[in-house]
Amino acid sequence: MARSETTAPRNGAKRADGGGRHGRWKLLVLALLCLLPGLGALKMGLDGHTWVPLALYPLASLISALLYWQDKRQALHGAWRTPEKVLHASELLGGWPGALVAQQLLRHKTRKLSYQLVFWAIVLVHQTVWVDYLFLGSRFPPFVA
């Protein structure tokens, strides 16, 4: 009996719809993680402080995704790789959403535990800063009320 087109391959390969393993859950997690920065950046702009964070996240995410794509290509061709500190710097500057998408789509840097620990620490820092700004009255730098 032939396998249905909707069933996922058993060898771990990506499904034809591009969702990969648990695609909908990963999108939900990404949306939830982007909620605080998005709301915080929007509030910051509407309160008359600055619109820079609202523009910075998408721009930095695009740059991060491109850096991941370049690093993946270089890895496949045995060329010089993008240093991890450059990838982490782009994530820290607001590109972590693009980095997360690139990790999943390119299947790149997802299994290296030391890399993932730093990546998720960066995501946690961003979440903490926005929780502070939105709910705690900006007790910690870099925001001043």
Layout of helices and strands, plus pairs?
Elements: H1 23-46, H2 52-77, H3 84-106, H4 113-135
Write a structural description:
The protein has 145 residues and is mostly helical. The chain is built from four helices and no strands. The radius of gyration is 18 Å and the shape is elongated.
What is shown here, in short?
It contains 4 helices and no strands. The chain has 145 residues and is mainly alpha-helical. The protein has a domain at 37-135.
Unreliable stretches covering 5 or more consecutive residues: 1-18
Shape: elongated
Fraction of residues in H or I helices: 55-70%
Main sheet summary:
none
Mean pLDDT: 86
Features of the shown structure:
145 residues, mainly alpha, 0% strand, disordered N terminus
